[in-house]
Task: inverse folding
């Protein structure tokens, strides 16, 4: 009651609150009747739903009670039936024991019935055996198998009945087995025929597919008999002799052996008979596998039941057979080209459209689901072995190429020229053709291996260039022993220099073509330096050759003979120009560098002649005459080297000769300091001993003047750190001259001290 009152109070409070919400404004009073009707409809709707829900629950309870009542009745009926069955079972125990004789009679009747049923076959066993043998020999396999099944059925039924009657009676069992003894031989002969057909399955399915179908039908029949006999063994413990035959399992073994034999038998030649034996073997294998799998897809699949998954099975058989074969090949002592052929075939050809990735096969199986033909460790081992062999081979190839090129250096004919007229030999082309061929082969394997081979080539190239430089030096030394030999020494030395340029271009071309990364390799700097050294040495050797011819004429400079008039400089210019007609066949930048070096060296040798004090001018006329000759000869050198450098600026070096001439030409000794200062300011690398030698050659400078000039120059000595072409740096003054000058300077210093 308390709960009902509380519920009523809550309902009233809620209603009051709801009415208050509806009548908040005065104009809403006109709608009171409308609100009342709406609330009455809602109340009626709620009451109707409550009544329906309660009625539904009551109907469910009524139905449940009815079902429980029926179940109780069924349980009572079952209980009564079980009681009746128990009563009947107790009464029939004695009756069952009395039927033992009947049971034995039934067993005996069954045996006799089986014997009567097989009586005809029993008496005709020898005849059926003979007929079956003939059918097997005539390849009438289905008919032969039918007769064989009849014979086996008769034997198995008799043995089973004997087993049921007396399983321990081995005498009767052996009697039956011996009587049907030839049946097992027929089964073996038939099996041989079946395996023979399966071994020739690829040919049979093209020529006579019905034969293959017959074999599969026979094997399927035997599989069913095997299953039936195994089921009976579980029930009775008896199984006929020779069962289970497991011919289906044997069939797959035969097919596997057939595939293996087909792959192993593809090798038709040996390494001794044909150097390309590996390529031929792999191509034959590719053709066999592809042709056979297409035959399996188009013909053989139709000869086997769908649940055999024939194509998948053959695909795996061929894959495994090929894998075993290539692993055997990988284990042999392969040469470098054979390793590449094998790996290219395994890693690329095998999965390509030419073989397992053929469009006709892709629709049936995905080769990527199979294991690799070769384990990765075997691939890595082969690649390592190839790199070792390749390193050894390429060292030998490069050595042989260099030896061949060296022989050409001693020919009496000039080297060949390229389309632009530059001398060259065939060495760069031979070397980089060799590299190109090996890189193309390596690229067939994979990108990583290709880059490894490229790095190895560059490493070997560096070692080769070191030997190339050594051979060029030896070539020069051989020539110096007899300058008449080789006859084309200059031309081949030019070709050696040009080869360095060709080597650089070829290396950059290889890297751009076969190396993805633009970063320099560890051998780049060494190769660049060695090539520059070889070219620099070659240019130096050629200049040495020029100056050996100029030596006599250079020795005439700044002598009494020179002062009275000689053609030494004329001869020098003609000789240099003649040589540089040949040097025009040197490629840039070596040609330009060599011309600059020849220019510098001519000027240095001229100034060396000045410093050697071959002449001391006796008077102003000699100084003027000598200075004029020096200025004239400087102009000759300028003209020559402007011509050789196609008009480029060449004045600075030759102006050093003219500047020295101005020191000699000066007539007023009191202005000598200014002239020397001008010379030093133009050529800051000039040293004290050079000034002393010039003043000594002039012949009219007093000791005081020399002392003053030297002291002043030492106090205001300019720096020459930024000079690009130092002239006096490498010029030494003979010791005799310096000793006499030093003694003179010491005496002057002592006099001043006094």
Result:
């Amino acid at each position: 009651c308390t709960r009902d009152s509380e519920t009523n109070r809550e309902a009233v409070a809620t209603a009051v609150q709801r009415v208050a919400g509806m009548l908040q404004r005065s104009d809403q009073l006109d709608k009171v009747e409308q609100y009342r009707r709406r609330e009455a409809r809602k109340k009626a709707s709620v009451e109707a739903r409550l009544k329906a829900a309660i009625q539904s629950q009551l109907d469910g309870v009524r139905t449940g009670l009815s079902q429980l009542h029926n179940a109780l009745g069924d349980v009572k009926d079952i209980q009564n039936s079980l009681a009746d069955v128990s009563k009947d079972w107790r009464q029939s125990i004695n009756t069952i024991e009395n039927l033992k004789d009947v049971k034995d009679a039934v067993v005996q009747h069954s045996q006799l019935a089986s014997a009567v049923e097989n009586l005809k076959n029993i008496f005709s066993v020898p005849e059926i055996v003979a007929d079956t043998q003939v059918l097997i020999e005539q390849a009438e396999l289905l008919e032969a198998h039918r007769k064989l099944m009849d014979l086996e059925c008769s034997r198995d039924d008799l043995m089973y009945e004997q087993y049921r009657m007396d399983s321990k009676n081995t005498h009767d069992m052996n009697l039956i087995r011996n009587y049907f003894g030839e049946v097992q031989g027929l089964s073996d002969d038939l099996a041989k025929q079946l395996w023979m057909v399966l071994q020739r399955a690829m040919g049979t399915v093209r020529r006579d597919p019905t034969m293959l179908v017959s074999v599969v039908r026979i094997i399927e029949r035997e599989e069913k008999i095997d299953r039936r006999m195994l089921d009976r063994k579980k029930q009775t413990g008896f199984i006929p002799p020779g069962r289970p035959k497991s011919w289906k399992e044997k069939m797959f073994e035969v097919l596997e052996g057939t595939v293996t034999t087909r792959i192993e038998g593809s090798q038709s030649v040996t390494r001794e008979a044909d150097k390309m034996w590996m390529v031929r073997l792999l191509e034959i294998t590719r053709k066999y596998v592809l042709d056979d799998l297409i035959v399996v897809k188009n013909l053989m699949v139709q000869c086997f039941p769908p649940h055999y998954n024939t194509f998948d099975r053959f695909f795996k058989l061929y894959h495994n057979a090929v894998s075993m074969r290539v692993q055997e090949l990988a284990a042999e002592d392969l040469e470098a080209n054979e390793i590449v052929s094998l790996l290219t075939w395994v890693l690329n050809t095998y999965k390509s459209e030419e073989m397992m990735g053929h469009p006709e096969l892709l629709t049936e199986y995905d080769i990527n689901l199979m294991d690799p033909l070769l384990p990765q460790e075997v691939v890595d081992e082969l690649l390592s072995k190839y790199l070792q062999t390749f390193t050894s081979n390429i060292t030998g190839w490069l050595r042989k190429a260099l030896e061949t090129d060296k022989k050409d250096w001693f020919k009496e004919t000039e080297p060949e020229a390229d389309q632009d007229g530059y001398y060259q030999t065939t060495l760069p082309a031979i070397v980089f053709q060799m590299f190109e061929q090996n890189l193309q082969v390596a690229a067939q394997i994979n990108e990583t291996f290709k880059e490894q081979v490229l790095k190895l080539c560059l490493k070997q190239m560096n070692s080769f260039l070191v030997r190339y430089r050594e051979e060029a030096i030896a070539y020069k030394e051989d020539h110096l022993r007899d300058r008449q030999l080789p006859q084309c020494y200059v031309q081949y030395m030019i070709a050696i220099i040009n080869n360095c340029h060709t080597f650089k271009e070829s290396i950059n071309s290889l890297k751009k073509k076969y190396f993805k990364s633009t970063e320099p390799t560890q051998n780049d700097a060494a190769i660049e330096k060695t090539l520059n050294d070889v070219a620099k040495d070659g240019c130096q050797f050629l200049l040495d050759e020029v100056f050996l011819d100029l030596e006599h004429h250079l020795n005439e400079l700044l002598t009494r003979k020179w002062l009275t008039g000689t053609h030494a400089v004329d001869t020098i210019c003609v000789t240099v120009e003649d040589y540089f007609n040949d040097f025009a066949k040197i490629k840039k930048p070596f040609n330009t560098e060599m011309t600059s070096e020849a220019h510098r060296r001519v000027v240095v040798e001229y100034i060396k002649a000045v410093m050697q004090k071959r002449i001391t001018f006796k008077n102003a006329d000699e100084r003027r005459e000598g200075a004029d000759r020096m200025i004239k000869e400087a102009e000759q050198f300028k003209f020559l080297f402007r011509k050789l450098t196609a008009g480029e600026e060449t004045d600075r070096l030759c102006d050093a000769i003219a500047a020295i001439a101005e020191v000699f030409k000066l007539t007023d000794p009191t202005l000598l300091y200014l002239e020397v200062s001008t010379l030093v300011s133009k050529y800051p690398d000039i040293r004290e001993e050079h000034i002393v030698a010039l003043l000594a050659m002039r012949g009219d400078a007093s000791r005081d003047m020399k002392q003053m000039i030297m002291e002043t120059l030492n106090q205001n000595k300019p720096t020459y750190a930024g000079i690009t072409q130092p002239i006096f740096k490498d010029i030494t003054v003979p010791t005799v001259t310096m000793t006499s000058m030093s003694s003179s300077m010491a005496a002057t210093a002592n006099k001043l001290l006094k």
Notes: The chain has 29 helices and no strands. The longest helix spans residues 32-98. Confidence is low (pLDDT under 50) at residues 736-754.
